[in-house]
Amino acid sequence: SRLLPALVLAPFLASSRPLPDKNELANACYFTYRVGYIICDSGLGQEEAQEAMKAGKCNEDFRLMGSDFQRKVVRHYALGERPPLEEAMWLLTAPENFQLRTLKECSAMQVVAYILVAEAKLHVQGTDSDAAPADMVRLALQQAQQVPTEIYGALARARAWPLEAALQRYQETAYRLRT
What we know:
Blueprint: H1 3-13, H2 22-27, E1 34-39, H3 46-54, E2 59-65, H4 66-79, H5 85-92, H6 96-105, H7 107-125, H8 132-145, H9 149-158, H10 163-178
Antiparallel strand pairs: 1-2
Helix pairs in contact: 1-8, 5-7, 6-7, 7-8, 7-10
């Protein structure tokens, strides 16, 4: 049902609490959050990769900035600019422990990435409730439930991350593709 995701996100999108304190702002990743990647030859085993990193043979300069991703998703949903799918895929293809850390440290970044990619996959993998896009949205909503309500309330009041717009666009796209 179209109402279920909205009901799941509703507690996160409305709160009577005042703006967050400095610690919550840091946790909400407004300006400084970054995800760093070390890129080595994918054919290396774990020990070989460790040696390659120590020898400086891996690229350690790739960073995904939370503020850059935030700006791109806001512009995508508000102005129709290109979706930042590459950045979202970097987030979603990270190992589970990295994704859990990102969810804890910059939850909106992780949740929006899942919904953004799910919408793109609708065009290829279909709109069935058991297809990969629907699974991704369910995972995004499960992740959203793990985040403290005051963080999402602060984000919603500041309209810092387009959580509602992402979910609405996903639902509209799924409906349009079904008809």
